[in-house]
Amino acid sequence: MSGNGRALVLGGGGAAGNAWEIGVIAGLIEAGLDVIEADLIIGTSSGSTVAAQITGATKPAELLAGILTAAPSPPTASVGPNGGRVAIGPAANHMEITGAIIAAAKDAADMRRRMGAAALETDAASHSAAQSQWRATVAARLSSQTWPQQRILIPAVDADTGEPVVFDRHSGIDLVDAVAASTSNGFGVPPYRIGDRRYINGGYRRNENADLAAGCARVLVLSPFSGRSRHPLDWGMHLAAQVEELRAGDSRVETIFPDGDANDIFAIGSNQMDPSTRPPAARAGYHQGKALAEQLTEFWRLTV
């Protein structure tokens, strides 16, 4: 990546985070700042869905309109091998399970190994139907299921080893599979299988994965959770550590966090997976994007 490059970083934030980021991008574009023209787009978890959506055939304004007009949908489910329903979505005790794993881990690498092992314990044969349904669900959200020529990076974590991976169009897998892997929380949505490997959420690598933009002159980060992290600060998972690394490498970095009406949606303990949060999150993001476009224009368009 050239030192003159621009990177757009899209953090995870569940269904609400996806909607808020689409709203922000649509608002920025309407106000005259097209951040989709970035040389590099990094999408993590629900941000990976946004990255695939905005570089497909559907324009952000259309994606926004679809969110605002869509009827809320129930959690996705599939029929299991015994005829029962296999739910796909956040496990009811997801925060409790992952919180205990984080508390027991000695560092980030240990946390990833433990998180993968725990997720794999839930990956029973009955989840094969859930995997197929999850792939279909992700595919339905994308207007194009092939990688764009524009450079996109989608992080995930190998559940078997705990090692981070970063998918791009040279990885030899479909875009849909990369997004499905990065959005698998491992609990509720089981580890996503690609070939003989299984993957869990890209946010277990680092929260926003903005460090993958190293070498870019300008980096714009959208973080639904406002850079907050559930991990100990000395692990360096949090956004502030990533921003510090980027700036040490002479990147200029700007961040956008939810404000106003979106604050409550992304508060700790809120259910960002609730489909009813999507319209208000998208509206708040749209108004925020329009309001921020002018002050971000010089930063984004600056030639070095």
Rounded to the nearest angstrom, the distance between the terminal CA atoms is 14 Å
Low-confidence stretches: 75-88
Compute the number of strand runs: 10
Q: Report strand %.
A: 5-15%
Motif (GXSXG): 43-47
InterPro entries: Acyl_Trfase/lysoPLipase, PNPLA_dom
Protein name: Patatin
Keywords: Lipid metabolism
Q: Please, could you describe this protein's structure?
A:
The chain has about 300 residues and is an alpha/beta fold. The protein has helices at about 15-30, 45-55, 60-70, 95-105, 110-120, 130-140, 175-180, 240-250, 280-300, and strands at about 5-10, 40-45, 75-80, 85, 150-160, 165, 190-195, 195-200, 220, 250-255. The strands form two sheets. Strands 1, 2, 5, 6, 7, 8, 9 and 10 form an eight-stranded mixed β-sheet that branches. A two-stranded antiparallel ribbon has the order 3-4. Strand 1 (about 5-10), helix 1 and strand 2 form a beta-alpha-beta unit. Helix 2 runs antiparallel to helix 7 (about 175-180) and helix 6 packs across helix 7 (about 175-180). The longest helix has 24 residues, at about 280-300. The protein is globular, with a radius of gyration of 18 Å. The two termini are about 15 Å apart.
